[in-house]
Amino acid sequence: xFPSAVQDRLGHALYRVQIGEMxxxxxxxxxxxxxxxxxxxxxxxxxxxxxxxxxxxxxIYVLHAFQKKSRRKIATPKTELDLIAQRLRKARADYDEKxxx
Length: 101
Fold this sequence. Notes:
The protein is α+β, with helices and mostly antiparallel strands. The chain has a single domain (4-100), classed as YaeB-like fold, CATH 3.30.2310. It contains two helices and four strands, in the order H-E-E-E-E-H. A four-stranded antiparallel sheet has the order 1-2-3-4, with helices on both faces. The radius of gyration is 14 Å and the shape is globular. The N and C termini lie far apart (37 Å).
């Protein structure tokens, strides 16, 4: 579970993205995940990441939230990226299904 202060900061950053702003702790992912944005929050207890997408119509999907375990490597672990990619595919399919109705 994320610390309360981290939840508040991530929630505020998510709100700012929803209203069209781009806070300084938000960056676009690369490659096949380029439609996803990553919000990063550092805390004494660790680094926390929230991955969202804003490229599917007007809908924002929260794809993944996790605490980064390694302090030495900057890159997001492949297992996390694979999970994000899987959820991004599901979000696109969900959006397509809802807009066809």
